[in-house]
């Protein structure tokens, strides 16, 4: 049975019932139909006691076989609820680009899903549309300022703020705007990023409240003047209008799992080309409502978890109390050299060889002061012997681990009981959280620290344009910002084909992009693109609507 069929057969409760159970008062609830709603955090009363503890779910390096990190996140939360805990989930919203492309959705799978999965994976409550509109409004206002006399002395050749679209569309990576004569604007080279990689998305997800959202929007650098001075939204005077476009979207979205666990799904930056975490306001809202908040960071721990700990945890008080790393037998075999088509068969040598990837992720998380729990997400093709061997290997390395069958036994079933017990034990252990690098470290050294300490590289190479940008960043006073690495998710290196735990490599930084509103510097490595393309056979080819208006072929 497909994920969509399982979701359609689930007994979904009115969103008011989920809100009541979560302690959300009716005056703070804004329903969007029967099964989803927004929450106004300003109307929530503070609970007595400490805010909810945060469990961060990350993973080993993903493979095209799929590891089910979101499925594990949902299944873990349902299992904690089954164990009597007051728990809430905080997830990112899916982007239409991967939904119609190849990755799939972000609502979990099997019997560990958030509902209504078809609506969540499509337009949901319109947040992505609002973010896209705010982004493109700023782009239009910049071009209009140039056209209307250019009072800020904007250099059209040095406008760095790009338009966005929530779609994979390689044809829009590089475009020319303003053609057609004087009445059509000033011709200049431009381009599109995907909405999930935009600075507006990052600002949206890192802001702590509306005032902070407005302040961060005002700090966005959209380009440079003819005398090469950075120009900000505050100088353009449109931060109020951008905040207005985002004010409703900024409220977190409440939905539910198949088992009825409340979930906040809000914000959706990618983790390979952005910072990969759901919104701060959703995480903090969940902490005000629940004793335990299960959240995730995108892709492997070298990307999403590092960015959660070095970027999101600096922006707000959301440092995790425990960390989970999702692993699968299939991914370990693939990192051990097995082709995707052969993953179903037993291969003890490849399984053992692939543990190098998992071990590096575990040791990296330990560098932040945590002893992570490894969640072995069980697939039907996994044998008991393979699972027993992997559990024994984890024990031999001093790593807490538990197998979980939450795809098949989720929805409040027993499949995640062992994992929930391991996580509860981890929550009772002391942590020594610290960031990987201090903010006063030069940007070049921050990048070198990440590349060597997390990726395992020997060195980092900066292109000539990247070296020029480093000098500009320091000259403009942005050197104290953290770094957001843009890198392939499939490898510790910047070469997607180097699986496992590679060594003896250099990471190549081809450019640096200051995100002064979001508050970080993006380092573009290898061949990573901020506007992905669709695959040869996109998932959209199998999607449709039946005669009753129900989605077909959506995972």
pLDDT < 50 runs, ≥5 residues: none
In total, how many beta strands?
A: 25
- Tell me the overall shape: globular
| Helix proportion range | 25-40%
Strand content: 15-25%
CATH homology group of the largest domain: P-loop containing nucleotide triphosphate hydrolases
The number of domains is 3
Q: Which fold name corresponds to the CATH topology of the largest domain?
A: Rossmann fold
Instruction: Give the biggest beta sheet.
Output: 12 strands, mixed
Q: In angstroms, what is the radius of gyration?
A: 23 Å
The CATH architecture of the largest domain would be 3-Layer(aba) Sandwich
Mean pLDDT: 95
Distance separating the two termini: 10 Å
Q: What is the CATH C level class of the largest domain, in words?
A: Alpha Beta
Structural class: alpha/beta
- Our count of helices gives 19
């Amino acid at each position: 049975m497909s994920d969509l069929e399982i979701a359609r057969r689930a007994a979904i409760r009115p969103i008011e019932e989920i809100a009541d159970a979560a302690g959300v008062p009716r005056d703070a609830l804004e329903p969007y139909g029967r099964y989803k709603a927004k929450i106004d955090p300003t109307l929530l009363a503070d609970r007595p006691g400490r805010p909810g503890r945060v469990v961060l779910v990350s993973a080993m390096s993903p493979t095209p076989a799929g590891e089910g990190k979101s499925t594990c996140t949902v299944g873990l939360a349902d299992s904690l609820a089954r164990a009597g805990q007051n728990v809430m989930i905080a997830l990112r919203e899916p982007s239409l680009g991967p939904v119609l492309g190849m990755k799939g959705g972000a609502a979990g799978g099997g019997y560990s899903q958030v509902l209504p999965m078809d609506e969540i994976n499509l337009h949901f409550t319109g947040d992505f549309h609002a973010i896209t509109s705010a982004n493109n409004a700023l782009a239009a206002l910049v071009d209009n300022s140039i056209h209307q006399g250019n009072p800020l002395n904007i250099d059209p050749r040095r406008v760095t703020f790009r338009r966005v679209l929530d779609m994979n569309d390689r044809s829009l990576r590089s475009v020319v705007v303003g053609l057609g004569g004087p009445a059509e604007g000033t011709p200049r080279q431009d381009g599109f990023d995907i909405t999930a990689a935009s600075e507006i998305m990052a600002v949206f997800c890192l802001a702590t409240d509306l005032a902070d959202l407005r302040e961060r929007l005002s700090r966005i650098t959209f380009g440079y003047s003819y005398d090469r001075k950075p120009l900000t939204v505050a100088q353009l005077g449109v931060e109020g209008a951008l905040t207005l476009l985002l004010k409703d979207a900024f409220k977190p979205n409440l939905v539910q799992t198949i088992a009825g666990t409340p979930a906040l799904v809000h914000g959706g930056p990618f983790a390979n080309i952005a910072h990969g975490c759901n919104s701060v306001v959703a995480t903090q809202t969940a902490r005000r409502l629940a004793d335990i908040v299960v959240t995730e960071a995108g892709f492997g721990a070298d990307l999403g978890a590092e960015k959660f700990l070095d970027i999101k945890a600096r922006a707000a008080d959301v440092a995790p109390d425990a960390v989970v790393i999702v692993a699968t037998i299939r991914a370990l075999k693939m990192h051990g050299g097995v082709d995707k088509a052969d993953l179903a068969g037993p291969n003890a040598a490849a399984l053992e060889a692939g543990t190098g990837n998992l071990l590096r992720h575990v040791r990296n998380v330990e560098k932040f002061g945590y002893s992570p729990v490894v969640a072995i997400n069980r697939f039907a093709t996994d044998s008991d012997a393979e699972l027993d061997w992997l559990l024994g290997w984890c024990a031999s390395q001093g790593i807490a681990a538990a197998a979980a069958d939450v795809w098949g036994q989720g929805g409040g079933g027993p499949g995640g009981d062992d994992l929930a017990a391991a996580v509860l034990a981890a929550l009772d252990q002391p942590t020594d959280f610290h960031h990987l690098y201090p903010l006063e470290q030069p940007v070049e050294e921050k990048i070198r620290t990440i590349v060597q300490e997390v990726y395992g590289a020997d060195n980092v190479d900066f292109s000539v344009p990247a070296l020029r940008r480093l000098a500009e960043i320091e000259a403009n006073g942005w050197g104290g910002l953290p770094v957001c690495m843009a890198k392939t998710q499939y490898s510790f290196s910047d070469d997607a084909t180097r699986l496992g735990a590679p060594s003896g490599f250099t990471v190549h930084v081809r450019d640096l992009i200051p995100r002064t509103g979001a508050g970080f510097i993006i380092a573009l490595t290898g061949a990573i693109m901020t506007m992905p393309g669709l695959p040869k056979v996109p998932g959209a080819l199998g999607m449709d609507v039946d005669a009753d208006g129900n989605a077909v072929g959506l995972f």
